[in-house]
Amino acid sequence: MYRIHVDKQYFNFSCAHFLIFNDGSREPLHGHNYWAWVEVEGDLGPMGYVLDYITFKPLFRELCNQLDHKTLLPAGCGVLKVAQRGESVEARHDDGSVFSFPAKDCLVLDLPNTSTELLASHLARRLYDALVKRNEHRHLHAITVGVEEAPGQQGVYRYSLPHVRGG
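Request: output the structure for the sequence above.
Response:
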C-alpha cells in the first residue's frame, strides 16, 4: 500500500459558520481562515504513482476554493431550518435567531453541522466523487483529509473508499 500526502499553502479557505452544540444551542456566527491537507492511499498505477501531482493538486485546490468566502450552513441539523427564498438563504434556529444571507455568498452543505471533522468529511467525499468522474479511483483505498481552523486545532476524516463494481 502506498500513500501520498499533499499539504500546500494554497489549500485554504476563509468562511463564516456557527456550530450547533449537543443541547441544541449555537455559538455566535464567526469566521476562520481554514487550512487543509490531504492523503490518498492506494496501489501504484501503471506508471508507478498513486496519483499525478500535476492534475491532483488543482483538483483539491478547487474543492477548497468552493468553500472560500462563503457562509457555511448545515442542511441536516434538526434545530436549524435552512431554506432558499429567492436570492436569499434563510436560516432559522430554534432559539428564535433568524439569519438571511445573499444566496451567492452562502453554501448549504448536506451535513448535520459545520465542524472541522465534518468539513474534512465533505472534502474527502467530494474529492472521491471528482476522482470517479475522471476514472482515477479504481486503485485507491482511502482518502484522509485534515481541516485546521486554528493552529494546533484540526479535525481529520479518513474515508475508506467503497469498492467499485462493474465498469
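DSSP finds two helices and ten strands in the chain.
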